[in-house]
C-alpha cells in the first residue's frame, strides 16, 4: 500500500491495520508467544530454578513447564500482566487492547462487547476498566522543562441520568481537576498529567505539583497562592484578574486545550463521566494524549506487559457496594418462610437490630421430616370408605351420574330458553 494514502500525522508511526493485527496474532498461541518473547527476550529461563530450557503446554499455551527433571514447575506468562486470572481468551484481550489503542477517541465497553462477541457486558466492562488501570505506568517520569499548571472542573453524571452539570440537582455535580502540560517549541504540547482533587486548595494542589513535575522545571500558573514557594521550581505567576490581562485560554493556551479536549471527549465518547470512575477515565485520557504517536508499544502497555501489576479483581474496581448488599439481603428475605420472618421482625424491633441479624439469632428451623406414605405432606383427595386402608395420592373420581341423569343434564343444556315453562 502506498504511504501517500496515510495522513501526515501517521507518516512515521501509523496504527497497525486490521490485516497486520490478524497476521501478527492469529490465535491464542501467537498471543502467548508474544507474551513469552516479552518476558524472556533471550529465551525461556525458569523463575524457580533458573534452568534455561522449557516448553509451552499445547493445551494451555500461556503455561510453560521447566525442563529440569528436579523442578518441572509451571510458569504462567500472564502472571503480573493485566490478564492474570482471566477466563477470557488471550486473543480477545489482545483484540480489545488493539481496538483501545488504535481508536483515536477510545471505545466504550458497550461497543467493545459487540466487537469482541462476548455475551456478558459485565465481563467486558471489567476488561476495559483493567485496561484503563494498566494505562498508568507506576514508574513514569515527572514532567520537565516549561510546565503549565491549572485547575478546572468537569460535570459528571449519575447512573442513567443525563448530564446537567449540577444545576440545582443534588445528585449531579462537578469534579475539580488539576492538570499540568509540558510546553514545547512553537504551539505544541508535550506530555500531560491530570488528577481529580477534592478542592482547589493549597493542601490538594501542592502534592500534585510536587509529584508530577521534576525539580528544576519552570511552572506557569495563575495567581493562586497555593503555587507560591514550591521548592526547586521556578514560578511564573500570571495575574488573570489584572485590568489589561489576556483571557485565560490565551495565557494558558496549552492546558486549556487539554481541558477542553477532555470535556469534549468525555461527552462524545461516554456521554459524560460517572463520578465513581472519573480517575480511570482520566487515566485513559492522559494515556491517549501521551501515547498519541506510538501505537504498537501502547498495546503492550495496555496489556500490562512488563509492568508487574498485582492481580486486580472485580472487587478492587467496583468495591463492596451498598446496592449489592441491599439486593443480597432482599434475596435472603425472599427465601425465609412467613412465620420465621415475623419472628425475626419482632426480634429486630425489640433489640433495635436489622432483620438479617435477627434471623441469625433465631434457632435453626427443624429439619423437614422424611416422607411417610401414611402421613403425606399434602391432603389427599377423596375420603376412604369405612374400614379401607388409606392410599395416599390416589385420585378418586366423583360418583358417575346414571344414564337418566346424563340425559336430563343433556336436555337441560340443549333446551332453548324461550320454550322453558314457567313454574307457575
Ligand atoms: Zn525450574
TrEMBL record:
One Pfam family per UniProt: DDE_Tnp_IS1595
SMART domains associated with the record: DDE_Tnp_IS1595
ISXO2-like transposase domain residues: 142-290
Region of interest (Disordered), residue spans: 369-400
The organism's place on the tree of life at top rank: Bacteria
Entry protein name: Transposase zinc-ribbon domain-containing protein
Amino acid at each position: 500500500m502506498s504511504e501517500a494514502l496515510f495522513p501526515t500525522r501517521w507518516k512515521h508511526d501509523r496504527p497497525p491495520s486490521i490485516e497486520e493485527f490478524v497476521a501478527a496474532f492469529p490465535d491464542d498461541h501467537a498471543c502467548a508467544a508474544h507474551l513469552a518473547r516479552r518476558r524472556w527476550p533471550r529465551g525461556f529461563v525458569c523463575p524457580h530454578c533458573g534452568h534455561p530450557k522449557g516448553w509451552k503446554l499445547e493445551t494451555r499455551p500461556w503455561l510453560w513447564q521447566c525442563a529440569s527433571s528436579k523442578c518441572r514447575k509451571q510458569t504462567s506468562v500472564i502472571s503480573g500482566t493485566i490478564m492474570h486470572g482471566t477466563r477470557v481468551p488471550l486473543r480477545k484481550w489482545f483484540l480489545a487492547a488493539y481496538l483501545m489503542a488504535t481508536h483515536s477517541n477510545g471505545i466504550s465497553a458497550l461497543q467493545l462487547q459487540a466487537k469482541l462477541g462476548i455475551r456478558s457486558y459485565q465481563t467486558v466492562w471489567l476488561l476495559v476498566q483493567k485496561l484503563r488501570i494498566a494505562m498508568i505506568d507506576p514508574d513514569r517520569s515527572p514532567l520537565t522543562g516549561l510546565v503549565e499548571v491549572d485547575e478546572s472542573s468537569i460535570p459528571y453524571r449519575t447512573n442513567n441520568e443525563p448530564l446537567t452539570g449540577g444545576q440545582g440537582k443534588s445528585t449531579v455535580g462537578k469534579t475539580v481537576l488539576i492538570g499540568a502540560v509540558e510546553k514545547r517549541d512553537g504551539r505544541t504540547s508535550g506530555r500531560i498529567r491530570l488528577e481529580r482533587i477534592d478542592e482547589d486548595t493549597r493542601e490538594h494542589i501542592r502534592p500534585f505539583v510536587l509529584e508530577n513535575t521534576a525539580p528544576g522545571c519552570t511552572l506557569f500558573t495563575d495567581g493562586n497562592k497555593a503555587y507560591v514557594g514550591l521548592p526547586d521550581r521556578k514560578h511564573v505567576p500570571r495575574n488573570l484578574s489584572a485590568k489589561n490581562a489576556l483571557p485565560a485560554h490565551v495565557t494558558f493556551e496549552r492546558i486549556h486545550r487539554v481541558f477542553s479536549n477532555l470535556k469534549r471527549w468525555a461527552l462524545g465518547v461516554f456521554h459524560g463521566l460517572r463520578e465513581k470512575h472519573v480517575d480511570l477515565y482520566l487515566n485513559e485520557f492522559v494515556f491517549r494524549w501521551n501515547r498519541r504517536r506510538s501505537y504498537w508499544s501502547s498495546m503492550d502497555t495496555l496489556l500490562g506487559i512488563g509492568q508487574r501489576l498485582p492481580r486486580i479483581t472485580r472487587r478492587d474496581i467496583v468495591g463492596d457496594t451498598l446496592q449489592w448488599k441491599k439486593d443480597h439481603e432482599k434475596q435472603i428475605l425472599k427465601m425465609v418462610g412467613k412465620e420465621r420472618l415475623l419472628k425475626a421482625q419482632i426480634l429486630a424491633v425489640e433489640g433495635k437490630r436489622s432483620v438479617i441479624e435477627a434471623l441469625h439469632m433465631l434457632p435453626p428451623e427443624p429439619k423437614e421430616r422424611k416422607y411417610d406414605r401414611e402421613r403425606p405432606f399434602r391432603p389427599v383427595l377423596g375420603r376412604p370408605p369405612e374400614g379401607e386402608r388409606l392410599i395416599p395420592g390416589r385420585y378418586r373420581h366423583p360418583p358417575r351420574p346414571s344414564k337418566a341423569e346424563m340425559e336430563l343434564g343433556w336436555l337441560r343444556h340443549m333446551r332453548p330458553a324461550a320454550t322453558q315453562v314457567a313454574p307457575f
